[in-house]
Amino acid sequence: MNNKSTPPRMTKPHAPKETKKRANVTLPPSGDRFAARAEASAPSPAEKTKAASHPAPLKRPKEAPRGTTSRVAPDPVEAIRKQYGLTEEDTNMVFELGYESELASLVGVENLQKLKLDYTKKLHDSNRHPYRTAFGYRGEEYDGQHHREAILAAYIRDRRFLILRVILTALATLALFFVDQRFTAERTLSGMTPASPWLTPLIGLLILLAVALLSHRQLIEGIRHLVKFSPTPYTVGAVLLPIVLLYDACQIFTAAPMLPANLAMALLLLLTAFCDVLRLSCELRVFRILSADAPKMVLSPVDPRKKKLRRGDKIVKIIHDDAGKNLYRVRSADHVMGFFRRFNSMESAGAPFMTFLIIMLSFAVLTAFAAAIYRPELAFVLSSFMTVLLLCAPLSAVFGYFYSLYRANRLLAHYNCALVGGEAVDEYDGEKTVIFRDGDLLTARKQTEISSGEDGDLQEDLRLCGLLFAKIGGPLGEILKVTRKAQGDATVSILRVQDNGVEGTVDTHRILAGDGEFLRRCGVSTPKESAEKALRRTPNAAPLHVAIDGVLKLSFEIEYECRQDFECLVSDLAEHGTLVALYTYNPNLSDEFLPLCRPRRPDPVSVFRPGRYEEEAPLELADAGAVTLSADHRTLVYPLHAAAGVTAARRFMMRMQIISSIVGTASAVLLTAFGMPEFLGVLPIAGYQLFWILLSLLASIAELNAKALRFRK
Q1: Pick from 545, 560, 526: which is nearest to 468 by CA?
Q2: Which residues are paired to 589 by β-bridges?
Q3: Rounded to 5 degrees, what are φ and ψ at 443?
Q4: Taking residues 404-417, what's their average pLDDT?
Q5: Residue in 452, 447, 454 with CA at minimum distance from that of residue 469
Q6: Quick one: which of 461, 514, 523, 452 has its CA closest to 486?
Q7: How does residue 332 score in pLDDT terms, banded at 50, 70 and 90?
Q8: Is the pLDDT score of 540 beyond 90?
Q9: Three-state secondary structure call for residue 464
Q10: Which of the residue ranges 187-196, 258-267, 670-679 would you say has the lowest mean pLDDT?
C-alpha cells in the first residue's frame, strides 16, 4: 500500500468470489448505516410504477431481469477500491491480518468503515451454508430479514418428530426390558427357549436395530466426529453400538448364558433422545431472543491496539499495546450472526469425551484379560468385558454436557439474555476483559472552578466547550449540557485523541482540551499551578484546560465519583477472572488517576483509550456469544456468570465420570472374585448409571443456581 511493506497477497480470499449482487446505492456522507440500509432496500421507480398499476400482497421485491438496462449509481465500495488502486483480495487480506490502522491512514476512517462493513456482510453470506445438526434440522445462518418464520416453523416441526422419536424409543426400550430379562423370556417363550436358545438374543438384536434406526442421525454424527478425533456426546453411542451388536452375534452363535446388553444400549439411546429435547429447547429459546425485533446489546470482540516500535524509518516490531487477551466491548447491534455455528460447535467436548472413551475401553479390555486368566471361558470373558464397558459408559457426562447449557439459558431467559451455544461457553471461559463506557462507572460530581483566561464572550466559549464535551461523552458530557436550541446546526468532529488531550473542531473553531502539558505541546501557554492549590485539590479531582483557536479560554476542576452498583459488578466479575476496562476519550481518565476515584477498592479497572475517535453507532452485524434485550447493558454480565457456571458444572461432571468408572470397575472385579455375579445384572448397572446421572443433575442445578442468586442482586 503506497510505499509500505505489505504481506503477499492471499491466493484465496476470505470472502467468496461468487456472491449475491448488492444493491448499488450511494451511502450518505455522514456514514449513517440506517439511512444507507433504508436507501438500499427502497424500490426502484420502475418497481413503484408496476406496484401502482398492479397491486399485490406484500412480498419481497424481485430483482430486475437480466435483459433490462437501467442507470445505476456506482458501488461506493468498488469506487473506494478503484480510487486507491486496491482489489477485493487486498482488503480481505488487510482485515484478515489486522492491518486496519495502515489502511485507515491510506483511505480514511470513514472509507475504512464502509470497506469493513462490506467485508463483514460478505463473510456473513459465505457462512450461510447448511449446518449439520443431530435432531434433523439443517439450517442456514439467520440473515435478520425473512428467514425467522421459516426457521421457527422448522424448529416446531422438528420438535414434533423429536417427541415422536422419544416415545417410540421408550416403547422399544420397554419391549427390550421384557425380552432381555431371563425370567420374563422363560415365562413368555417357555416352549421355544429350550429348543431355540438363540431366539431371545435374536429378538433383542432386532429390536435394538430398530431403536438405532430411530437415532441414525446421532450415530452418524458420532462416527463423523470420531473419524476427526474430536468426539462429542453422540460418539458414545456410535462406539458402543457396534460392540453390542458383535456381542449379540457371539451370544447367538455360542448359545451360552451371557449378560444381556441390549437393554442398556437402548437406555443410552433413550437418554440421547431426551438430551436432544433439551438441546432443541435451548436453541429455540435462544433463537427467539436473537431474532426478536428489539434493540440488542452484545459483547463484541475487540482487537488489541497495535504499537509500532521503530528504528529510524524502519518498523522493527509490532506489539499489542493492551495487557491481556480476549477483549470484549459492550455494543448495541441490529443483528447477531453465528447462531447455528456456535450451537453446532462441540469442540470443548473433544478432549473430555476422548478421555472417557479411552478409560472405558481400557478398563473393559483389562478386565477381560483378568477374567481370561481367572476362568478361561468365552462366555465368562465376554460377560466381564461387557459388564465393565456398561459400568464405565459416560452416560452422566452425556447428560451433564447438554443439561448444563439448557439450564443456563433457561435461567437467562428470565432476564432476556442468552448464551449462544457451546462455542460461547468456550469463548468466555478463562481470563477476559469486558470494556464498558466510562459513564457506566463514573459521574462528574461537580465542577469547582470555571475561569476565562481572555476577555471575550463567555457564553459562546461555554457553548463551544459544551458541544465538544457532548461529543466526547461519558461523565465529561454531563458537565456543560447544551440545549438543542443552543446547539443549532453545529458541526462537531474529533480530530485527535491522545492520553492527556483531545483536539476537535466545532464549526470553524479549533478546540484543544486536556492538561497543561498537552496544551503546551500544541503551542498554548498555560499558567503554572501553585503547590498550595494542588494540595487543596481532592484526590478524585483533576484539572482540565480548554483552548479555543489557540487561546486558553476555560479551566475546569472536575471531581469524579464512582457508581456503587457498578462497583459491585466489578467485584463480582473479578471472582471469575474477568477484568473491567473503561472505553473513554476523557483526557482526565488514566490508569494512574482511576484508582484515586476508587479508594479501598481492590479490584482493578483499566482504561481503554482508542487510537482514533469512533462514532457510537449500532453495529449492523455482530458475531457475539452473549446477547441481551434489556435496556441496561450491564445485564450482559449474566451470560458471563452462566458461562462460568456451565464450565464449572462440566469440570465437576468430568471428575465424577472418572470416579464412577474407577468405582464401577473395582466393584465388578470384587463381586466376581467373591462369587457374587448376580449383583452385576442389567438392572443393577442401570441403577448405578442413574445414580451418577442424578448426581450430575444436582451438581448442575447447584452450580448454576449459585450464579442465579447473584443475578438478583
Answers
A1: 545
A2: none
A3: -130, 145
A4: 91
A5: 447
A6: 461
A7: confident
A8: no
A9: helix
A10: 187-196
Query: CA neighbours within 13 Å on the CB side: how many for 59?
Result: 8
For 105-149, how does the pLDDT look when each residue is reduced to its tens digit (9 = 90+)?
A: 777 767 777 787 777 767 655 555 555 555 555 556 666 666 778
- DSSP-derived letter for residue 479 is T
Q: pLDDT tens for residues 230-283? A: 899 999 999 999 999 999 888 888 777 778 888 899 999 999 999 999 999 998
Instruction: Please report, for residues 42, 63, 517, the alpha-carbon distance to residue 47 in angstroms, rounded to integers and kept in the order given.
Output: 10, 10, 61
- Please give the single-letter amino acid code of residue 70: S
Q: Per DSSP, what are the bridge partners of residue 492?
A: 506
The predicted model scores a pTM of 0.75
**CB–CB of 575/492 below 8 Å?**
no
Q: Are 211 and 269 in contact (CB under 8 A)?
A: yes
Q: Are strands 432-437 and 578-583 parallel, antiparallel or unpaired?
A: parallel
How open is the CA angle 289-291-297, to the nearest 5 degrees? 65
Which of 635, 299, 580 is closest to 431 using CA atoms? Answer: 580
Q: How far apart are CA 128 and CA 131, in angstroms?
A: 9
Residues 275-315: tens digit of each pLDDT: 999 999 998 899 888 888 888 889 888 766 555 544 555 54
Q: What is the dihedral of CA 73, 79, 82, 88, to 10 degrees?
A: -110
What is the Cα–Cα distance from 427 to 642, expressed in whole angstroms? 12
Contact predicate 15/122, CB 8 Å: yes
CA nearest to 518, candidates 534, 549, 533, 496: 496
Rounded Cα distance, 12 and 398, in Å: 39
C-alpha gyration radius of the chain: 33
* Cell numbers placing 345: 460447535
* Cα–Cα distance, 176 to 185 (Å, whole number): 10
Instruction: Give the other-Cβ count within 10 Å of 694's Cβ.
Output: 12
**Mean of the per-residue pLDDT values of the chain:** 77
Cell readout for 177 is 426390558
- Rounded Cα distance between 258 and 248, Å, is 9
Q: For residue 82, what is its C-alpha cell?
A: 478503484
3-state class (DSSP) for residue 665: helix
Amino acid at 232: T
Percentage of the chain exceeding pLDDT 70: 75
Higher-confidence residue: 27 or 120?
Answer: 120
Q: How many CA atoms lie within 13 A of 418 on its CB side?
A: 27
- Residue-wise DSSP of 266-296: HHHHHHHHHHHHHHHHHHHHHHHHHTSSS-E
